[in-house]
Amino acid sequence: MNVKKIKPFQSRRERRIEQRRQEIMTAAAQVFAEQGYAYATTKEIAAVADMAEGTLYNYFPGKRDILLAIADEMQCIAEQLFAEAGSLENRRDMVFLVERGLEMFVARLNFTRILLLEALVDDVILQEFVQQRLNYIAALVATFINERIEAQVFREVDSGMTTRMVLGMVLALMLPVLRGVQAPPTPVQCHDLAVAVVDLLLDGLRVRSVVEDAALSQGVSVPVLC
Amino acid sequence: MNVKKIKPFQSRRERRIEQRRQEIMTAAAQVFAEQGYAYATTKEIAAVADMAEGTLYNYFPGKRDILLAIADEMQCIAEQLFAEAGSLENRRDMVFLVERGLEMFVARLNFTRILLLEALVDDVILQEFVQQRLNYIAALVATFINERIEAQVFREVDSGMTTRMVLGMVLALMLPVLRGVQAPPTPVQCHDLAVAVVDLLLDGLRVRSVVEDAALSQGVSVPVLC
Amino acid sequence: MNVKKIKPFQSRRERRIEQRRQEIMTAAAQVFAEQGYAYATTKEIAAVADMAEGTLYNYFPGKRDILLAIADEMQCIAEQLFAEAGSLENRRDMVFLVERGLEMFVARLNFTRILLLEALVDDVILQEFVQQRLNYIAALVATFINERIEAQVFREVDSGMTTRMVLGMVLALMLPVLRGVQAPPTPVQCHDLAVAVVDLLLDGLRVRSVVEDAALSQGVSVPVLC
Amino acid sequence: MNVKKIKPFQSRRERRIEQRRQEIMTAAAQVFAEQGYAYATTKEIAAVADMAEGTLYNYFPGKRDILLAIADEMQCIAEQLFAEAGSLENRRDMVFLVERGLEMFVARLNFTRILLLEALVDDVILQEFVQQRLNYIAALVATFINERIEAQVFREVDSGMTTRMVLGMVLALMLPVLRGVQAPPTPVQCHDLAVAVVDLLLDGLRVRSVVEDAALSQGVSVPVLC
DNA sequence: TATGAATGAGGGTTCATTCAT
DNA sequence: TATGAATGAACCCTCATTCAT
């Protein structure tokens, strides 16, 4: 009984604190995304969050911890994505995973941007947050590819390298958005992008023709083409 | 006559100056690459260049200008690459372009790294240097793709988007190297990577089979697969 | 009548307030003693006093005023000491005064420590509190010495300087305790210390001649002396 | 030859650096002594040293290191004192040691003050600098006392406690000077103070019996004694 | 031209104090 | 009255840039 009365009270306070932390993280994400972590000042973060500089330190031990909190937050979101993504059984799964990934990008544009940006400079961010998640996706994709290679549905390619290239395709599509020189894609565009990625991945650019194909499957290089 | 005597003298002096600038740029590139431009200090650049801090300012107006000079330098190198690359007529041209691109990456790892890193944060770097060059390559690739689409050798894809994905593939392959968590590829590896990229791009992952291919060329989706 | 009813009410309230002030002062004394006034934070004082930071300010105008209140408190205690000490008529009085002084030190270790510490830095503390009391003791001791010099019981010494040396002896004995590197003396040890001080003061280190010594060793007070 | 030319050059530079460090230490000592280490600001130290705030950091890693450097400096000076002091064989040695100690106090008033002040709050200062030196002096004095107790020249006192009281006497004499409420003693006064301390220590306050006194008053050293 | 000490604006952070609840 | 989040001045320190030598 007592507990019940106290709990909502604590919970309200905790909710207030969590909300404030979110405000700060959002403001910080904006500033970090605009100027990069190194050049972002706590003064400006506070200004964007519409609070005094000192207030930041009631919620985070320091500037760096705001960055890490943002990374942590993304962690959770990414995990949800994977949970939904399932086991990548077929083309539709692939499209779905890519589509959701893109949507996540878009939904948390600033957060994603910071993470990628800082991962390029900051070892902790790279290893503890970005690498971890990329490895997860990479494993997912690699398994998918390897299974199909064994089933002779896919050509014999280096699955690790290919995986990286797939991720690179997606990244490349989002780079201008991340960089702020292109508007984020609408959900419909996300779907189209996902389809384009998966199709390119599966079939390449070339038109399939009977002759070539027969030749290819025998491992013979076709002189006509390129 | 007079001119001839003076010119080599001036020229020697100018060569000395140019050499000094190169020393500084190399040292700066190393420090920038290791720590990121923002965290790099002029003190450390000077130390790596084995000169006094003040001397830097005899050759560059400021820290930022060293970065811009590095970007400029890359500009020239990239232009040489394109000049060699020719007009992307066939598969071999594509492999060659990618291969030379990778080699360039490797040869000037620090320079490339800084450029990409800072382009993500610095608008001038992005627009004046990186964007420019990427646009050039993109145009090259897009033309190549469009020509083949018209010739019905390639499927009808969005050439702009595809171009970006191609560049993303290459970038993804080099990211771990750029980030310093993977050794740079040897020339042989560069070639293999280039082949892998081009093949994936042209043919995708799927094994070609007579039936599918026939179906595909008719734009019919094959139910069996995926 | 009205007054009588109101007074105890007010008095109870005032007692509550006084009690709260004491709690705060005790907590503050502990924190001040551990870290020094300058390094002590109101946050920690509040934590030790088991109340919110803001509550402190309902009882004291500011951090510094807590320090001054502590000093004031010591004032009162010291006055009690002097009242009991009487007029320093003989050796026993001296021992008694020193002993009680030591006991006071020990009883209010934190308070004493803070006062001495801050008196070394803070002019107000020095002049308004510490100096005042030291002057009082000094006067007491000096009078005692001067009387005996006139009676030719003591050698002709500079009574001011000697007084200071006496106080220094006591201080030196307590410094390690104040500094927290030695356990505070038990009451018995306080007595022994007091005896040691007084004896050294009266007789110095050198062995006395037979006659005097005989008298002293029998515990007989030499009537002429003291 | 080369070395010879270089050495004076290095030496000049090093001398310049050392001089600058001394300037900073002197300025810092003044500010520390006036306000206490905790309240002293680097801004004010720089102002007193008549240089920019940043310049301090060309010579010391941080504020605290200036304090430690001051402590180190005193270490050296103290060692010289002990070297001169010899082995404390007799009364004259004692007077000499005390006198030189007082002179050292006076010569480096600010330095001494800071050391004592901070030793009361700062564990490193206490243990690494002050304690060390006090232990040395204490050992010297204790040995002196113990030897004489064995020779039955001194009464049987607790040598440790007595030592501390002796040091306390000296400290007490200097406290007002340290605190800045009394002018530092002249060399002559230093001598007189030293004599007073030693005499009080040896003979206490009480008038001696005729025999001893006769000897003493003639300035004849009683051979057995000291 | 090369040097490196000097500079000082601006950074992240702390903490005594205020004030709405 | 009790609370503790909000405040912002002031702290220590960094570092790109300047300038006397």
For this entry, give a set of tags:
homotetramer; 226 residues; mainly alpha; Arc Repressor Mutant, subunit A; Tetracycline Repressor, domain 2; 77% helix; elongated; disordered C terminus; DNA-binding
Q: Give the CATH level 1 class of the largest domain in chain A.
A: Mainly Alpha
Oligomer: homotetramer
User: What's the N-to-C terminus distance of chain A?
Assistant: 78 Å
Weakly predicted, low-confidence segments of chain A? 1-6, 210-226
Helix tally of chain A equals 10
What name goes with the CATH superfamily of the largest domain in chain A? Tetracycline Repressor, domain 2
Number of separate strands of chain A: 0
**Beta-strand content estimate of chain A:** under 5%
Sheet with most strands of chain A? none
By secondary-structure content and strand pairing, the structural class of chain A works out as mainly alpha
Q: Please compute the radius of gyration of chain A using only Cα atoms.
A: 22 Å
Number of domain units of chain A: 2
Which two protein chains have the largest interface (Cβ within 8 Å of the partner's Cβ), and how many residues from each?
A: A-B, 59 and 59 residues
String of helices and strands of chain A = HHHHHHHHHH
Average pLDDT over all residues of chain A? 82
Helix content of chain A: over 70%
Give the overall shape of chain A, derived from the CA principal axes: elongated
Q: Which fold name is given in CATH as the topology of the largest domain in chain A?
A: Tetracycline Repressor, domain 2
For the record, the CATH architecture of the largest domain in chain A stands as Orthogonal Bundle
